[in-house]
Amino acid sequence: MGELPEHVAVNREYWDGMAHEWVEAGERSWNQTEPTWGSWGIPEGELHLLPDDMSGLRAIELGCGTGYVSAWMARRGAQVTGIDNSAEQLRTAERLAQQHGVALELIHGNAEAVPKPDESFDFAISEYGAAIWADPYRWIPEAHRLLRPGGTLVFLGNHHLVGVCSPVDGSFPITRGFQRPYFGDHRFDWRDAADDPGGIEFSLTYSAWIRLFRTTGFEVVDLAEIQAPADATGVRSGIEADWARDFPSEHVWTVRKIG
Engineering a disulfide at 131: which of 25, 64, 153, 155 sits with its beta carbon 3.0 to 4.6 angstroms away? Predict the structure, then answer.
């Protein structure tokens, strides 16, 4: 299989070590009858990330974690594959799939190099997962390879402003002023963060995303910038609700493979 890229190896160790912290959240999400998305739990009825009827569709979740998004798609009729970098996360996904009687194909692997043939899927999605933990210059072309012509990719992750406004030392909370260049490196290494040390994440400017989509062979269908609900309180991953009402903390891209 060869040596893993540094960020893949780092993130695998990070997520294997903290997978136990996400078991309860995964169980809650598996029990939901309707999806909610992102840190602020935005209802599917507002964001429309999934087709209402996925009967006959082949779908893949890139960075599936505990597998709840894969389960939501399977319950809508899709034939679903989930791939994740963390074996420990997949153990939870496998247990919950068996417990709920949901058929999923689960693969331990890197979403930048999925062991599936070209044009294997009609629909691909990532809620965080590959959307922030994989290098977009690798995983976006890989998603394009996996999708049939006309297939759709949807992904939700941190808005670029989150990285730009995050203190350089990784302390919380993020600020209302820029802490690093908007046009800086697209790689954020949080291993030595002052608060909640993490793995290696990725983020692009919006012009870079659009250029990447165009050169890869995707057309943009939609972009949503997520605002925290009016009644949201507290802090999510170092982001205060008041901040996320004034500035977008998350985004959702929907793109379609040309051809």
Answer: 155
In the chain, the number of structural domains is: 1
In a domain, 1, yes or no: no
Amino acid identity, position 150: G
Q: How far apart are CA 89 and CA 20, in angstroms?
A: 8
In a domain, 117, yes or no: yes
CATH at residue 64: 3.40.50.150
Residue 182 resides in a domain:
yes
Classify strands 42-43 and 239-240 as parallel, antiparallel or unpaired: unpaired
Write the CA distances from 177 to 8, 187, 249, integer angstroms: 31, 20, 14
> Which residues, including other chains, have CB under 8 Å from residue 16's CB and lie 6 or more apart?
86, 87, 88, 89
Q: How many residues does the chain have?
A: 259
DSSP label of 206: H
Query: Cα(111)–Cα(62) distance, rounded to whole angstroms?
Result: 6
Residue 116 belongs to domain spanning: 6-257
Q: Which residues of 121-159 are buried (b: 16+ CB within 10 A; e: fewer)?
A: bbbbbbbbbbbbbbbbebbbbbbbbbbeeebbbbbbbbb
Residue 18: half-sphere exposure toward Cβ, Cα within 13 Å: 13
Beta bridge partner(s), residue 257 = 218
Residues 88-99 pLDDT 10s: 999 999 999 999
The pLDDT tens digits for 190-241 are 999 999 999 999 999 999 999 999 999 999 999 999 999 999 999 999 999 9
48: left (phi over 0), alpha (psi -120 to 50) or beta: left
